[in-house]
Amino acid sequence: MMISYRVHTGETAGMAVVSEPYVQLYEDVHADPSYEGNPLFSRDAYLERASAQAQTPGFVTVSAEDGSDLVGYTYGFTMEAGRWWRGALKPPPDEVLKETKLAVIELMVRDDHRGSGVGRQLLAKLLRNRDERYATLTARPVAAAHRMYLRWGWRVVGQSQPASDAPAMDIMLIDLGVS
Fold it and tell me: What is its EC number (predicted)?
């Protein structure tokens, strides 16, 4: 297995996340029963969100490829100072709210590549050389990824329910050490 990683910015990043290989990987990951067939995780909802998010300042995508096969990706964008997650049940700590943050939106790894370090490398490359002080993401408490983020040093700082039919999500944060 020879994995190569690519960082995509600008229009290339936006086109990547809505291309068929990315959408198919998203669907494959969310076919897991823990997602309970929730409409938030449907193909159409993903495409709608990803298309809008790709227009956000600081949007960046990192892909992992084994030859010509997409085996994983992550993406995020700059969350402006004063902004926080939609549906948050409480505001974040003041020191977090007043800063710009990197909002990590997706981290997808093909099932046959999980546990090999691909996800960790994708996230490390996304977080590298950022200007934001913090990175934040949401994760379902019952998901294996939630435990993984905790092992990697992320901490839970709140909860969110982004839509009335969406599951509850933990809001997680990590200090990137940028001052």
Answer: 2.3.1.-
